[in-house]
Amino acid sequence: MPVRxxxxxxxxxxxxxxxxxxxxxxxxxxxxxxxASSKPSVQTSNSSIKAPPAKxxxxxxxxxxxxxxxxxxxxxxxxxxxxxxADQDYYNAVYGQLFELGDNGKLxxxxxxxxxxxxGNRTVTIDLRPGVKFTDGSPLTxxxxxxxxxxxxxxxxxxxxxxxxxxxxxxxxxxAPAASVIKVVNPTTIQVNLAVPDGAFxxxxxxxxxxxxxxxxxxxxxxEKAFAQLPVGAGPFTMxxxxxxxxxxxxxxxxxxxxxxxxxxxxxxxxxxxSGDEAAYEAMLSGEGQVYTDMSTPQxxxxxxxxxxxxxxxxxxxxxxxxxxxxxxxxxxxxxxAIYAMTNFAPILQNIFKNAYPVVQGFTxxxxxxxxxxxPGYQGYNATLAKQLVQASxxxxxxIDLGTISSSPVASETTQALAQEWSAFGVxxxxxxxxxxxxxxxxxxxxxxxxQAMIQTAGAYDPAGGVGVGFRFNSTSPFSxxxxxxxxxxxxxxxxxxxxxxxxxxxxxxxxxxxxNYYGPFYFSFAPANVSVKGVAGPGxxxxxxxxxxxxxxxxxxxxxNPSGS
Amino acid sequence: MAAQLPDMTAATLTAGGxxxxxxxxxxxxxxxxxxxxxxxxxxxxxxxxxxxxxCFVWPYIYSIPPGDSGSILDAALPPFSPGHWLGTDPNGxxxxxxxxxxxxxSFEISLAVTAFGMIVGGTIGLTAGYFGxxxxxxxxxxxxxxxxxxxxxxxxxxAEVLQPSETHLIWALSVFSVPAFARVTRGxxxxxxxxxxxxxxRLTGTSNWKIIFKHVLPNVIPGIVTFxxxxxxxxxxxxxxxxxxxxGIQIPQPSWGAxxxxxxxxxxxxxxxxxxxxxxxxxxVMSLNLLGDALRERWGVR
Amino acid sequence: MALAQQVQLQREPGARNDIVRxxxxxxxxQLVGRRLLTAIPVLxxxxxxxxxxxxxxxxxxxxxxxxINASPGAIAKLDAQLGLNHPFWDRYWLWxxxxxxxxxxxAYSNQQxxxxxxxxxxxxxxxxxxxxLVVSLLLGIVxxxxxxxxxxxxxxxxxxxxxxxxxxxxxxxxxxxxxxVFSVRLGWFPTISNSLGDNPLTAIRALTLPxxxxxxxxxxxYTRLLRADIxxxxxxxxxxxxxxxxxxxxxxxxxxxxxKNSLFTxxxxxxxxxxxxxxxxxxIEPIFSLPGIGAExxxxxxxxxxxxxxxxxxxxxxxxxxxxxxxxxxxxVLDPRIRYGRAAS
Lengths: 566, 302, 345
What we know:
Chain A is α+β, with helices and mostly antiparallel strands and 566 residues long. Chain A contains 16 helices and 20 strands.
């Protein structure tokens, strides 16, 4: 079902139901060029696919699924496009990024060359790459970046930058940032002064709009509407045509900063929106597309593996069964514990997801930092305990409302399976499958008191960024069922530091705290797979990338298509 | 969706042509015609009765697995598995049961909608056709407005606004069956009304009600009944379309349209999820159409 | 008007005015005028109905557009901008007024004018419908004529069986089966068609399966109707018997006379079916990823984009009313029996 996006992070959160064949963990705890110190343990090997030798030139058609990345109804101006990070593929192709997340979580400098934290992690200084020009010829300078970031902070869409900074009008969250916030040090150095310490600032850049820099010159010349349709950036490709939520045609940018190195390889890049996994699979079979991002249907992944390269990404966003602690029945901890004890994820994982993912008990996944699959004190499936708890909490006397997003068939199947499991203990459930709009309404209606239980994803490459743990567990988030100042404080401490040796133990503590209070059981950490025809190669297509929040960002400048070399 | 029929086409869907003059045809050919005419009536009728039996009687005399839940351990079994002769869906729900219970819902909805249309629409059409004048003008305009509305759009919008459910679907679909029946009834009434014997009755002072019940209705009913058989088929397909889009019967309640929609996601990998409910739907609607044809032939409806 | 009268009129002075008066008073034109007038309340009723239904949808569109983090101030501002804070009747009149000037408003979701949105998607749908109608009509005529040649013959029986199948199949189920057989297994047609391409060949390839899904049931109806009509004419109408008695060859009788008259009924039916046809498009287009107006309608309904839904529905309704009107006009004006009959009475 076609679903529209308003909420960037909402959408990334709600992308559920990915299946991959065998997920091998290859987490990375990144450390940037700045002040991070020790690297906590890196997970096991990644599963790359053998790629043919590089070939310059050629065309590639990439298929994107409707209801998520295949929709861009408002165009591609980062500050006004409510679909936000879902459109990362197009943004990355036309704008490039300041910093990129590469194989094994390595930080890659693209349009920026480095960063430094200072002032107790309250100031971040970023160095820009000198000599970079937009495709309209104007230079990418710190002034242009400041113009972009100011727009990003003032944006009233949910895609807006979430930096906590001083505002000219403190009461209005979208008012202009105070003059001291963004400082142009020199044409290639820019500085951000935050109101609170944030050691995860750079990690939070990935997949957020400050990472994509638009040409101020072209914006002023073309006007907002025209710019949104044919944006001008400094990325590896330039826009040729754009039919909203349908098709984008791009071609190689001859003035790309890596053009002397022969990048991008491809001459032409076309994106097409298709109705879903099945349509994409059929299209690839008949040669109408060479790449499909984010396939999640298990049966189709098995089929695809017989004809194409299927790359399992590194999971960073576990499924979570959110429980709303603000209303009955889940304001009662015994009822929440009953849910933990009643739910057996093993058969669901086996039968719906074909055992593709590792079971986790917290909000971290093998592809992200601070991965910790087990959580001490986590209540697992226990039928006897469940029966007692159901009796004690009276859960069998009420009907539970369980919802999920409708754009994923496996999410819906999961809710059905849960309802079946719970009925064995006498608990009745009503199932809801929401389109994105309706989902937002369900969460926010009646001051957040309308919903009881939702299956969503929680967690990101960096739990402090994207649809991280705060999104689902912070008391200020409208999508959270938890309002616990103690948890809030643990999470904000964890975000403040830039040292993983400080942050990871704090996140472990948070996960234990969540388990102890039964705020919501986690299932397993999934990540959608990218499918490509043999001969296509690149980061995210033949070498796995960690997903920033649910979906990894393919680095298009490094993608090539060598049909004969496969 | 099959075409919405204006008043005149009910007659033109007659299956066979008129038989040639008897004197040119052998006795054996005549007998064969008789047999084939009987077959054309009774075979679809039997199929329909069998389907109805399967959906409404069978589950109560022989226990079948529930159609809205199943054990996750039985997920995605292939056809001819023990205990699940048509297999199961990815949640372990038995497909045969989904067909049976989905069929119950489809029958109920289409019968309710058609009955409503026949009664309300028939009354409107009869009134407009018989009394003519003003009543006709106004009623016809109202009917025109409803017919001009693209059916699917209104049904979807209604499903969006009121939570999608069986009752709401029935209301929304009735908005379309009523004008269709009104038109057909009006046309049929007009044809009958101007016949000499009706005029004679009116001139001799017979009350309108008596004329309507004794003369008009009996002549109009065969056309309405045969049209309603066609209408049931159209409603089932339309309702399936709404379920297909996810705005009709909600999971976990089964419905044919939703089964087809779900099967769409794995069409290449497991085509049976689409094929099985599609074939059942086809058989159901075809039996209705064949029966309607045969009855039209039998009753000589023009 | 009878020829004699016309000639007589032309000879008289001031005859021109008379002719104008005659034409203006001619029953055919009067009928046309009357039908056009009655179309207006229908259109009004349709727009009103849409507006009512869409406005019952809960949720504040401004909130949905701006998203969760929007401040109440921003929402209020957008509310005022979109005119959402006005009472129901004001909004309806405002929209209707815009409609009469050809302006369908601004879509909520992408802030573009509804006119331009529709203009973007309409061509694809038009091509699809044109293709569907032309092919199903042509095939329908050919099959019906061949079948009517020998009623109850082999070809007739086969055509009846096939058209029965067409009447009973659900277009969405048919679409999926066609995709499976012709696109996936045989590869003859593309499975997705994000654009119709730059040459007629790609466009035809892209549109064939969707057209077949919608067209097969249509073809079935047309075939049956036409065939039954022709057969009936051949066996009942006096003029056919006369033609046969005069020695006109049977083939000529069939094609020239009977078909010509039956075609008239067929065309009326086509015009009447336009509305349902357009409804079918809404289900078929998304299955094939066709960027047409049906797909856009489903999208718009799902995101509660009121102006866009209203705009599209109005276009649908316009076409349907136009179709009905055309059918009525043809029926009354072109039917020679009625045309001459009225003038004489």
